[in-house]
Amino acid sequence: MRDTTDLDQDMMQALARLAVRVGLNLQPEQELVMTAPTSALPLARAITAEAYRAGAKLVTPVFSDAEIARARYIHGQDAAFDHAPGWLYDGMAQAYDAGAARLALVGEDPFLLSDQDSAQVGRANRANATAYRPALSHIAEFRINWSIIACPTLAWAARIFPDLPAAEALARLAASVASTARLDQDDPVSAWASHNAGLARRCAMLNAARFDTLHFTGAGTDLRVGLAEGHFWQGGATQARNGVICNPNIPTEEVFTTPHAARVDGVVRATKPLSHHGTLIEGIEMRFEGGRAVSATATRGQDVLSQMIGTDEGAARLGEVALVPHSSPVSQCGHLFYNTLFDENAASHIAMGQCYASCLEGDDLSPDAIAARGGNSSLIHVDWMIGDGRTNVDGLRAGADPVPLMRAGEWVI
Question: What is the SS3 assignment for 408?
């Protein structure tokens, strides 16, 4: 079965250039570790060629495959779902220690494992998250330049547009990916430079304001999110600790920071479904007290939601808060992508689990120092959407009047 071979070759080359030149800003003589599904092989090849043209020393791909992944759940031993290839992730961590960049290609079937045992899926995810932690720390702490970019595939397109013929569904998805990645602009690289400048101005304003808390109100939502001590806002192009400026997510419409793990209170309702490890979780509602989700319900996918926030102590607390205008290009596509890379950029959102230490002032903060600032620690980091055209957001400071930041889902400052 063909997956990406029907994509326009000009789009394939444009995505490859965007990934290497804007997403990664790959440096001469830098190594690249790239993960990708086999369905994205043509794009992986185009990116590899572009990386070598940019002066890469070595590109090392690590591929996953849908049928191989399913075979484990159909034929594997139950005890094996608590095991993960730590040796692989240790090797990735060594590569990052030596200065390698990291690129993740996404585009696999978002519901690949939806018909499998959710408990086994949860156990396998936990084992992988535990084993991956040495490598993930380089990303969470922004020690290296890294990026995520999507490749339209037939399996993914069929999930989004199940009533369309395969070729038409793929074309629709490709058009959405192109528009959200600004490939429909005359000069996508320049378009990203302009977009990044706008996000940087927004971050500068929020950093100068030094809000203590954000107050979200909307349909079913009245939530106060305290912000970590010494937090700062990021969005768009960011300088990693190795000095390279990169775009971690393509597309991206968010500005985000680190909440205080013990200072989140109130109720919040999801505005979009969450696609999480093959399960669609709908109608999420949570109530927070003292930073912890003391109640979490869903109209669909309750078992998976409960497993997710029960992963460890930090999984029921927040690690990220992000503001996104309702009019973002991702939102304007008018459909869910069932992929967090896209769906989180359609709406303001929060994330359960691990915080980004890169959003805290200071270099090489120890885990204890991060925790002292209010930064959360967990094996997971799962974004879910809480913003829409009815969402209002205010910035709060002690002893000062609330400052309107968003009204009806749009920036007002």
Answer: coil
